[in-house]
Amino acid sequence: MRKILILLGPPGAGKGTVGKKLSENWNIPLISSGDILRENVKKETHLGKKAKEYMEKGELVPDSIVTEVIKERIKMDDCKNGFILDGYPRNRKQAEILDGILENDNKLLAVNLVADDEFLVKRLANRRVCEKCGAIYHLINMPPKKPGICDICGGKLIQREDDKEEIIRNRLKVYKKETAPLLDYYKEKGVLKEVRGDQELEKTVSQIEKLW
Ligand code: AMP
């Protein structure tokens, strides 16, 4: 049976960091729609060019664009034992599409990582990411050993364009309007759990691991 974890929750709740740790512990891939889109923007692919304007404003990229890349990604061989989704689905339509793609032989859980807005804004404003390998740091809580340099690959740490306060606030607004209704979708299916995202990483990770 495939293990499928959908990480839900607002931007900054820790989906990427928690997902990475669980992906290592469980040996299944972490699939981040945001990372895939950013990679496409960086490489200036056809898809990246279409997604860029939405991402810069903190708006959602049209479903058709994101769905295409996710569909392709979860077909890959490394997903045969399961995978973790971060950032997808982002609205009800995407959740329905995902249901349509997945076969029946899955154990699926959706975990909602919760935290207050002000906590999220602070965490995102202090977030830095490696431009090479995508590793995530926090200037105060999880700083790199050498300022500005990734511990893992030596790449340069940058601030995401959409981690500027004004854009962060818009992303939170978009989350509440478009993504939060998804919680009901998974609640009705009986697969939704809630875990706090504003505690120590290890605690969040172990609470999620106990849910299986
Ligand atoms: P994230 O890295 O998850 O914060 O995503 C960064 C940006 O990528 C979002 O603000 C959206 O513009 C876009 N994005 C990522 N995932 C999705 C998705 N599932 N649907 C639509 N847009 C997305």
Task: Summarize the model shown.
By secondary structure, the protein is of the alpha/beta class. The chain contains nine helices and eight strands. The structure holds adenosine monophosphate.
Taking pLDDT < 50 over at least 5 consecutive residues as the criterion, the unreliable ranges are none
Distance between the termini: 13 Å
Work out the number of β strands: 8
Find the CATH topology of the domain at 2-115 and 177-210. Answer: Rossmann fold
Write out the distinct hetero groups bound to the structure. Answer: adenosine monophosphate
Mean pLDDT: 96
Strand and helix order: EHEHHHEHEHEEEHHEH
Shape: globular
- The total of helices stands at 9
Structural class, please? alpha/beta
Strand order of the largest sheet: 2-3-1-4-8
The CATH homologous superfamily of the domain at 2-115 and 177-210 is called P-loop containing nucleotide triphosphate hydrolases
Largest sheet: 5 strands, parallel
Helical fraction equals 40-55%
CATH class of the domain at 2-115 and 177-210: Alpha Beta
Strand content: 15-25%
